[in-house]
Amino acid sequence: MAQDFADRVAALAVRYPDNLALQAFDPGWYASLTPALRARLRKCMNSGLENPDSQMGCYACQPSDYDDLRPFFARVISRYHRVSEEARHVSDWRLSGVEGLPEDGVLDLARFGLPPLSMRVRVGRNLADLPLPGAMSRADRLRLEARMAAVFDRLIARPDFGGAYHSLTPGHARQIDAAAYRRLVDAHIMFRPMDGDRYLEAAGIAAHWPHGRGCYVSADRAFIIWVGEEDHLRIMAMQRGTVLNDVFDRLRAALDLIEGLAGLRFAWSDDYGAVTSCPTNLGTGMRASLHLPLPRLTRGGTDTRVREIARPLGLSVRGIGGEHTPVGADGTVDISPSARLCITEAGILAALYKGAGRLIEAERAA
Ligand code: ARG
Description:
By secondary structure, the chain is of the alpha+beta class. It has helices at about 1-15, 20-25, 25-30, 35-50, 65-70, 70-80, 140-155, 180-185, 200-205, 245-260, 305-310, 345-365; strands at about 115-125, 165, 215, 225, 235-240, 270, 275, 285-295, 315-320, 330-335. Strand 6 and strand 7 (about 275) form a beta hairpin. The protein is globular and about 60 Å long. The protein starts with a helix and ends with a helix. Arginine (ARG) binds near residues 47, 56, 57, 230 and 280.
């Protein structure tokens, strides 16, 4: 039995050298595990086995997977994030002292001659006392949503938040219909249907869709919390503007507020910081992004040129429809610093600011 699985991994590993989970698998260590731990590892690796073209190829299914299956996870984490297997993550939101930023600490894209753009900063967070989304039962998903509803009620009651919670759960008191859901997706407020994502499907993360899924949106639509996507929570600040600090500071303040509310305890790892489903998001759990118009660099509808320039700047490029979407016809791309682990939150924001400046310079020179 142990041998069958190990053989399957070994056969795929030869054909898929870029799949980190396949490459990190150690048959000797696997054989040494108890049957229960072996089953847990198989579950974590399922998405990358079903989708061998994966880059990471695994998801944690319990907050404790990173500790209990450490030899495996330490290896994929160190290779993906290019850190040592002993690396420890440290969080820091203070911009002062970060290299290469304006004296006054205001990261204003207008300094590069840019107009107001869509800016967004999100963090992934998971509650410590529930399985991660890959292993949640339908009841767990509904419990998560119910617990968050109590938090949202308190936000809605505050003049600085207000807004509403929109549920996708059939029969939920706050359920929205298909058309309203579509409008929220089109406005980039709500996440896309998860049941069409082959990675999330194979990971068990898309199970019971759309039960227990929804999103809180503040009155000004600039503060959003997704419930039940790839992480229990994706908490974000989003608005059009040029000053990156506006979204960063708002997210920080809202996070502090939410963490102070009774009943929520997030999963943290001493070594890896915020515990997330996907090892790519560990650490800060943060993705800071901008929709940047680069019509010259994307001429012909391809982002190859942008990627070439963005990569050494530590930036990832995607279409504005989200992960795995192509560049839009108008040449607008979504750029974000790739690093999440062993970088500070402030470091991520700074990388976005500096990278945007370099990209717009390249666009003008093209
Ligand atoms: N599971 C996919 C892979 O391994 C996506 C990983 C990164 N994206 C994400 N949404 N976590 O390639």
